């Protein structure tokens, strides 16, 4: 039987020289270990995701092809599968194929070309690639027959997806007509909620159905809002998982009889997640969410030349969870948490921020805002004296001024100190309705939790407190108090206004978001839908309607903010991240 | 001969009820004028550009189909061509066609479906639509035979584009096999530099080649960074333009013998623009650039519920040109220009700002920054005392603090006053190399000149001074002095550092940008290219190389800023606006 290497590596878009070097080193290592075959992820030589870079910088293609030649020369006594961008070279076609070169003994013996070109969500394959009309590529090695498919080509298998197929062709059935013993799938598949269960069931069922081995090699790495989780693997002829590479980490894994180590994936990730009904039980996705974000922070910082983070610590849920994620990704000594109390900030909040910082062991200090706020306020008042125009009855100017002054402090620190990035602490629920200040709390070099809703964030905080090596780092009072930005005082209570007073209960808001993202509900469907929240808290129909109307009013104005959100990481089933979701600012929804 | 209406209207994405109402009113008006046929732009009923809204909000499709039914009922004694999103209703296909319903006497007699689905630049047709395999739609009306095509379907005509064709099929040749007397092209085609010449030549040559009438109906309106210029038109059987609707304005134009009024298009727009060689002579695109931006501002403000703008006036080129464009779009009484001098601001700059404001008749006052800067500075210094980490040798903290404080003033004003939007004054040359401050001058609700390079902006300022009804509104000294943000003092000269000292000459920078965007040059090609600048100023090879390296170093770090640029308007041949160009933050270029 063949000795196969799953080369689960990360390469950078357009960085051809370094990508080629990394690939070459893997081939060398594989040869040293007497491997017969080495398999790399989809598009490994160009590096993925690449956006339009090789469209605008045409020489990247030439450089890539010459690098492929150089790699070809290294394949004496080994077969290598290398994903690359292949020019179609004929008029009347898109300029490129998404291809895998099958290289054996210093010769490209065949080229597998992707047939199904996803062009939804974060995928833009059809923007660049022509769909292959060729017979799928099959090659023989030491008496074993391998069929090569590329990522999406596996995801239209009619026996599995049935009426949910979105393409006409099923490349898996097509390639099986040539009766390979083993299918190899080269992929770039980002980690998202509810994806692992589908992948695992699909691959297992294909190998079982045909009685073949199924080898899946996936990219590991973060880029462009996507965490690729790796977790490359092999299923045996009866559909059993018999080998799995690491998750959220590069790996180089070799097998002689297909069996090998089965690395852990995040706890719960293998379970089916209920997409038929919203439930506040996020259990099965918390470990994956945590790992995916920590990995994204690590990678984003390193790849952009940063090693340190600075964030505002308010003593609230968002900044507390962000601080933990940053400390775990960068090391607590590389995180600065700053408490910036205004006159409205409560003593409890200040305390909570300090306790959290101590628990985490991150750098911490306090900078009181009042003097800066007062000076800015008097400057603004003299500006206002000069403007003769209608004022809002209730303006948010002074609330936003606090948030903006805090952001100015954080950005100034990052301008002053080497390799330090300010972090935006906005969460997904708030982003949806624009409950974040432009140039304020939504501003930063990276936004770790921008795709985590508030209710899920509470669950994540609880998960962190229970499962992190140091238990209970997030003070209980942070989890117990109602979320709120502490930017204004409610004149009736004399206390800071909490967010749910301004908006609506987060449980309800998150249920709306879930229904839109998972059920494609419009406003009418929402109004007619029986919410879980409704049944639980027995609210009136008018109340429900009011909140839904408020949601649409606010989210329509928030779209501008979605467009200027900092880089983040997509982690939910769907998101408002513009890499995935295209929402025009001018529209009725 | 048939009496035809070109209904050059603007509709809003997803706003089905209002779009249907607008369409109905046009049909009613056309009937009152005894028209035989009324033609609307592509996708008029859904409203374009729509992003993913009907993918996520599925009920929009149902609502649209029922609106189409209602419209169908209004077509007694008239034929109407209505663009809409048509479900494909079969498995193994993309869910929709991009279609035009041909409605005659209360019945949809045929449906034209788009064949060529552009998926480059700002276009994402293939993301949603299946390419039609049907015979192209031809219908008869009073003995005249009409062939219906949709936008891109006209742009692969082999006799015209020759080896530049990017698709296999040429729908124009296909439809001509059915020998129509007239081709109707329903379009949504945004205005860009160098586009009008191609459109005019193409349509004229098709009508001449086949001896047919060519009717082009285009959307007018701005949305999602795109200005659609309308300018719908008819060519006669010999290729002569015999009717043209207004540019950058809705229009309803009726013809009984195809002839009619020929409205002006922007001066110079019909000329061919040299895309083989960079030239500083922007003459033929200045009027179009001006009109396109003024239109975009007007539309962006109205459609988002704003009527007033506030901007910082530095006395420099960028803010001066922005002020003129805003005044012309919104009325000078609705624009507030604020001078916010710091200690570094020169007297000349303050004077220039004031003179410009007076010339334009906009609201103007001054708010000195020093006291606010001083307070912030002392707050920052006490923060810095608490941070034990490596500092930059030369930090930009204090320069950025000035820019951020100015932006805080502008945003605070917009938070305080009704319907007022702060405007970002960054230009394209600066955006490319990130020479703009996050949360500072690059921040705002709209960025009018983000797709205009600095050298073109000088030409535009000159054009404005010569051609605007009030001549020379921009003071000569603004055009004469070297651009610079006046954020720091050069210790050698004792004067504020000008931008070209920090970066490189704008003439050289803009030539790099032009070569990347129009010739797809990479770094090596740039280094080997003989620049016009080089010949003109006789610089050394080392100097050229140093600037090119600096460009790449700076633009790589600037990509993050490209992603958080405010909404703007694409006006150049190519841009870095993320609606058109997908650039990952993590990449080698």
Gist of the model:
Chain A has 589 residues and is an alpha/beta fold. Helix content of chain A is 39%, strand content 16%.
Task: Quickly list its features.
homodimer, 589 residues, alpha/beta, six-stranded mixed beta sheet
Walk me through this protein's architecture.
The structure is a homodimer of 589-residue chains. With 589 residues, chain A is an alpha/beta fold. Helices cover 39% and strands 16% of the residues of chain A. Chain A has 20 helices and 18 strands. The first copy, chain A, has helices at 16-32, 53-56, 59-72, 125-128, 158-161, 171-176, 195-210, 283-303, 317-330, 347-360, 370-385, 397-416, 428-433, 454-467, 476-480, 499-502, 506-519, 523-528, 532-537, 541-563, and strands at 4-8, 37-39, 79-87, 96-104, 107-113, 138-141, 144-150, 182-187, 213-218, 220-223, 226-229, 233-235, 241-244, 251-255, 308-312, 335-339, 363-366, 420-422. Chain A has a six-stranded mixed beta sheet, covered by helices on one side. In chain A, strand 8, helix 7 (195-210) and strand 9 (213-218) form a beta-alpha-beta unit. In chain A, helix 8 crosses helix 14, helix 9 runs parallel beside helix 10 and helix 11 (370-385) packs across helix 12 (397-416). The longest helix of chain A is centred in the C-terminal third of the chain and has 23 residues, at 541-563. The first copy, chain A, is elongated, with a radius of gyration of 26 Å. The N and C termini of chain A lie far apart (57 Å). Chains A and B meet through helix 2, helix 11 and helix 12 of A and helix 2, helix 11 and helix 12 of B.
């Amino acid at each position: 039987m063949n000795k196969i290497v799953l080369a689960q590596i990360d390469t950078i878009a357009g960085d051809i020289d370094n990508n080629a070097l990394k690939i070459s080193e893997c081939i060398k290592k594989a040869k040293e270990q007497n491997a017969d075959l080495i398999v790399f992820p989809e598009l490994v030589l160009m590096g993925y995701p690449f956006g339009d870079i090789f469209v605008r910088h045409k020489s990247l293609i030439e450089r890539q092809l010459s690098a492929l030649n150089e790699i070809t020369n290294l394949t004496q006594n080994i077969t290598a599968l290398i994903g690359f961008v292949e020019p179609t070279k004929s008029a009347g076609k898109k300029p490129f194929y998404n291809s895998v070169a099958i290289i054996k003994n210093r010769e490209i013996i065949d080229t597998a070309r992707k047939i199904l070109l996803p062009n939804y969500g974060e995928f833009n394959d059809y923007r660049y690639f022509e769909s292959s009309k060729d017979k799928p590529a099959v090659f023989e090695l030491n008496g074993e027959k391998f069929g090569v498919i590329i990522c999406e080509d596996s995801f239209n298998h009619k026996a599995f997806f049935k009426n949910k197929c979105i393409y006409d062709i099923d490349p898996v059935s097509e390639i099986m007509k040539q009766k390979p013993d083993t299918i190899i799938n080269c992929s770039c598949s980002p980690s998202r909620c509810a994806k692992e269960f589908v992948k695992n069931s699909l691959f297992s069922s294909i190998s079982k159905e045909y009685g073949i081995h199924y080898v899946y090699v996936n990219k590991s790495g973060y880029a462009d809002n996507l965490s690729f989780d790796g977790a490359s693997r092999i299923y045996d002829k009866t559909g059993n998982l018999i080998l799995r590479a690491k998750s959220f980490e590069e790996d180089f894994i070799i097998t002689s009889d297909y069996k090998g180590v089965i690395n852990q994936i995040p706890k719960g990730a293998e379970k089916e997640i209920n997409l038929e009904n919203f439930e506040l039980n996020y259990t099965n996705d918390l470990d994956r969410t945590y790992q995916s974000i920590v990995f994204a922070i690590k990678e984003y910082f390193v790849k952009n030349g940063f090693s340190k983070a600075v964030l505002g610590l308010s003593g609230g849920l968002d900044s507390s969870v962000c601080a933990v994620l940053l400390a775990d990704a960068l090391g607590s000594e590389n995180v600065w948490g700053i408490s910036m109390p205004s006159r409205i900030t409560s003593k409890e909040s200040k305390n909570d921020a300090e306790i959290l910082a101590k628990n985490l062991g991150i750098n911490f200090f306090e900078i009181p805002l009042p003097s800066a706020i007062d000076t800015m306020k008097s400057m603004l008042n003299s500006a206002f004296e000069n403007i003769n125009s209608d004022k809002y009855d209730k303006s948010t100017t002074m609330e936003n001024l606090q948030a903006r002054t805090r952001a100015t402090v954080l950005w100034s620190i990052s301008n002053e100190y080497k390799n330090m990035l300010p972090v935006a602490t906005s969460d997904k629920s708030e982003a949806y309705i624009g409950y974040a200040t432009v140039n304020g709390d939504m501003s930063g070099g990276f936004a770790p939790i921008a795709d985590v809703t508030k209710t899920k964030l509470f669950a994540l905080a609880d998960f962190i407190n229970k499962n992190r090596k140091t238990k209970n780092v997030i003070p209980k009072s942070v989890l117990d108090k109602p979320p709120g930005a502490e930017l204004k005082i409610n004149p009736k209570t004399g206390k800071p206004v909490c967010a749910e007073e301004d908006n609506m209960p987060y449980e309800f808001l998150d249920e709306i978001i879930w229904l839109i993202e998972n059920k494609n509900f419009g406003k009418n469907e929402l109004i007619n839908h029986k919410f879980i929240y409704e049944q639980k808290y027995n609210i009136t129909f008018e109340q429900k309607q009011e909140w839904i109307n408020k949601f649409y009013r606010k989210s329509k104005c928030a779209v501008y903010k979605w467009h200027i959100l900092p880089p983040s990481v997509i982690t939910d089933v769907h998101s408002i991240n513009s890499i995935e979701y295209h929402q025009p600012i001018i529209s009725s929804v």
